[in-house]
Amino acid sequence: MESNRFETTTNASTRKMDAGLRAHMNSVYARMSGGVLLTAITAMIVGSSPALLNLFMGGPQKYLVMFAPLAIIWFGFRPEKMAASQLKIAFIGLSVVYGISFGTIAAVATQDLTFAVSVAKAFFIASSMFAGLSILGYTTKKDLSGMQTFISMGVVGLVAFSVINIFFQNSMMANLIAGAGILIFAGLTVWQTQDMKRMYSPNMPAEMASRMGWAAALNLYISFIAMFQYILHFMNQR
Predict the structure, then answer these.
(1) 150 with 207: CB under 8 angstroms?
(2) Domain ranges within the chain, ordered by starting residue
(3) What is the pTM of this model?
């Protein structure tokens, strides 16, 4: 009798954990997908308006737009200090800024059908890769925590070389950066997915869970956007 009660309690706890985890993961992916959608809408609005395109990307101010996402990530997104509502605003701001910087892509895509097809293919490939990598990160039993240091160093190096190549405009370096970027952010997606699954607890306070959800959504959003950009780089060379 005692054994049956223990098994019943254990099974109920497991079901509660599974249901809570699914709801948490669905919330994270919904936030991340909303950010991607907001970026696309912003890019289309800016790209279809020569006045807005010139305002944001027509002079030296384009560098402010290009580096604004890094500023938001490094200085304006602190899950350990900021409330969930503040993190939400920061995430929306990041999505809009990325959309503004993608306005040039949207502008060219509306005028060049070949480029528009490349953009669509790059988005489809990035989406497929992201889905597969997320499933891998969610289902794998292997502990991927050892990847964190390596990937973090890779991202820092990637950003540094990308900034350097803005001034040198070396095509070979750009190809190497894009290839390395795809691999690094693919690994980051797998690790991030496992990490947010591992960190979830059904007993976590709602505010903390929401803060953690926004942080996870930001990480996955950045990985997806980066993979899309790097894949588009290669697609555009055909």
Answers:
(1) no
(2) 2-235
(3) 0.87
